[in-house]
Amino acid sequence: MASLRILVPVKRAIDYAVRPRVNSAQTAVETAGVRHSMNPFDEISVEEAVKLREKHKSAVEDIVAVSIGPPKTVEALRTAMAIGCDRSVHVETPEAADMLEPLQAAKILKQVVEREKPNLIIMGKQSIDDDFSQTGQMLAGLLGWGQAYGASEISVDGDTLTVRREVDGGTDVVKGKLPMVVMADLRLNTPRFATLPNIMKAKKKKVDKMKLEDFKERAENRLKTLKVAEPPVRQGGGTVENVDGLISRLKELGAL
Amino acid sequence: MAALRFARPALTRACAAAVRPAPTARTAMAMPAGVRYASTKLTPNFTMPTSEDLAELRERVQDFTRREIPEEVAAKTDRENAFPNEMWPKLGEAGFLGITAEEPYGGLELGYQAHCIVMEELSRASGSIGLSYAAHSQLCVNQLTLHGTPEQKTRLLTPLIAGTKIGALAMSEHSAGSDVVSMKTTATPVDGGWLLNGSKMWITNGPDADIIVVYAKTDPGAGSKGITAMIVERSFKGFSCARKLDKLGMRGSNTGELIFDNVFVPAENQLGETNTGTRVLMSGLDLERLVLSAGPIGIMQAAMDLVLPYTHTRTQFGTPIAHFQLMQGKLADMHVKMSAARAYTYATARRVDEGTMDTRDCAGAILYAAERATECALDAVQCLGGNGYINELPAGRLLRDAKLYEIGAGTSEVRRMVIGRAFNKEYAPR
């Protein structure tokens, strides 16, 4: 079996249980004072990397977590290391900077890949804040690597990866040779809880700091946010007496 | 005039005495009675956690409760009056059972602020799971940490912290509750150890416990100077739990009556020196009260978690009821009570972590938090109106759970007495 060097890109996002609110200037979602945690899809990819090590033992040489974001992003990296990553890379962005677009993130990740030399990248298929679901594909494209999107099962045999993907109406099994980018779906696994003893140990693991300026290749911002607004409040429905009532009501509304 | 002039010196003397009490401590640094250095309450490798460490810890516990103790688990624990015993290894694996214990035995040595945080967040998810957690991790684990020998710690503390064994502490008896020193359980010296006889009442985790710290009279004539602490294991012959008690609240935090019928306790299971049990007991009580005070705070937070969204979505007369002034007043009062209690508890815990323990504040923190929690829970029932009075929503459970904290670990009355006595001691004629 080929030795695996796994890179797991993770993102710190607003916690999934928080109800997002639009800021008063209507330019973005309010993030100040809001609970953040690791993007759930990324937790799944970290778990999968750790599971691969548990299964293939020493064949997994290295698991590195990488994240791009403001100083507090290091919390997500600590969680990743508490779950089982060996070390991490933090590409620090200024505190109030706009969130990177997929291509910008992919270009930075590409250079991290050139530095860290992984042969397998496992990442969440999307992050729950901007929901672009593009970074992984772009990264694979930039690297010229094979990719598998929406993984619900991963198995490694030699330098061949078999990935079961969730597609509309069923599953799709793809095979590919390393190096590869795999994007995790929700049903790939159930991530473990980062225990306190492991969190304490993770504090001693290494975090390499980098700045945006350290990256030669960078993409420009292509999107301009005009306005962010809450979805319209749902109007309550009404009840009808029977099927005839339903039909006449639908006709009234021009639906039939 | 003469009378007035006469009276003045006496008055100033009284004032001076009130401002600066005559030092009673024999040490060079005068400390009021009831305050003592708590360095002996901390493990040797303890370092003060930063506020970021503590904030992170709180988030981790919240992650845990979100996964493992959702409302359905809390409701089921209460409804079935049975602790979900599979929770123990989970709590152990998460690292919560040895917050104040030493690292070689699996502990984290994070101190009492950290312990209060875990207690608060677990109690916020389920009052009864929180209470059983405290009985295990504070009453049993911490007493072993502070008074156990290295051999006892390796043998008993390690499985307790891993959550593979369940711990309890047995102090109260039928006729010795608040007046605990009047206990009737006795241990008579025999070859190689003690023979324990008697019974203990209202013991949290009693029906499930594998390892129990028990206090018994070893010199019945010597009053408080004749008590010794010892560790009873479930497997000991003659030990049994007579019955699981049916309680008003904290249902699922299993409480039992324990019977000791000629139980042989080997000498290696004695905790601390012979006849020094009262000191073990009393110092433990301060820490017990401090950590338990986070329980009612968690219940108050649970009340807020329930009431705030409800009152903002429940509409009457075309307005969310939270917008009515009478309701605003209630919500504000609940918030202030909870926040004041929280501030008191964490300030006291911080001082203990810094090395000073004040008996008055350990008793005061739980006295205050417990009474406020019952008030907040009653208000929560009221805020929910008809829905507060039915068991589909947890308001009633919060109320039943909250009331325990005015009774368990010393009643409100005893806590006031403890504080009063500390003052009396301070002003005692020398």
Automatic annotation (TrEMBL), chain A:
Superkingdom of origin: Eukaryota
GO biological process, one term: fatty acid beta-oxidation using acyl-CoA dehydrogenase
Cofactor binding summary note: Binds 1 FAD per dimer.
Presence of keyword Electron transport: yes
UniProt keyword terms in alphabetical order: Electron transport, Mitochondrion, Transport
Subunit structure: Heterodimer of an alpha and a beta subunit.
Family listed: Belongs to the ETF beta-subunit/FixA family.
Function: The electron transfer flavoprotein serves as a specific electron acceptor for several dehydrogenases, including five acyl-CoA dehydrogenases, glutaryl-CoA and sarcosine dehydrogenase. It transfers the electrons to the main mitochondrial respiratory chain via ETF-ubiquinone oxidoreductase (ETF dehydrogenase).
Protein name per Swiss-Prot or TrEMBL: Probable electron transfer flavoprotein subunit beta
TrEMBL record, chain B:
Residues of the Acyl-CoA dehydrogenase/oxidase N-terminal domain: 51-163
InterPro entries reported in the protein's UniProt record: Acyl-CoA_DH_CS (IPR006089), Acyl-CoA_Oxase/DH_mid-dom (IPR006091), Acyl-CoA_Oxase/DH_mid-dom_sf (IPR046373), AcylCo_DH-like_C (IPR036250), AcylCo_DH/oxidase_C (IPR009075), AcylCoA_DH/ox_N (IPR013786), AcylCoA_DH/ox_N_sf (IPR037069), AcylCoA_DH/oxidase_NM_dom_sf (IPR009100)
Cofactor needs: FAD
Domain of life assignment: Eukaryota
Leader sequence segment: none
Keywords: FAD, Flavoprotein, Oxidoreductase
Biological process (GO), any one: L-leucine catabolic process
Domain Acyl-CoA oxidase/dehydrogenase middle, residue spans: 168-263
GO MF annotation: an example: flavin adenine dinucleotide binding
Pfam family, one: Acyl-CoA_dh_N
Boundaries of every Acyl-CoA dehydrogenase/oxidase C-terminal domain copy: 275-422
Xref: SUPFAM superfamilies: Acyl-CoA dehydrogenase C-terminal domain-like, Acyl-CoA dehydrogenase NM domain-like
Family: Belongs to the acyl-CoA dehydrogenase family.
UniProt cross-references to PANTHER family, sorted A to Z: ACYL-COA DEHYDROGENASE (PTHR43884), ISOVALERYL-COENZYME A DEHYDROGENASE (PTHR43884:SF18)
Protein name: Isovaleryl-CoA dehydrogenase
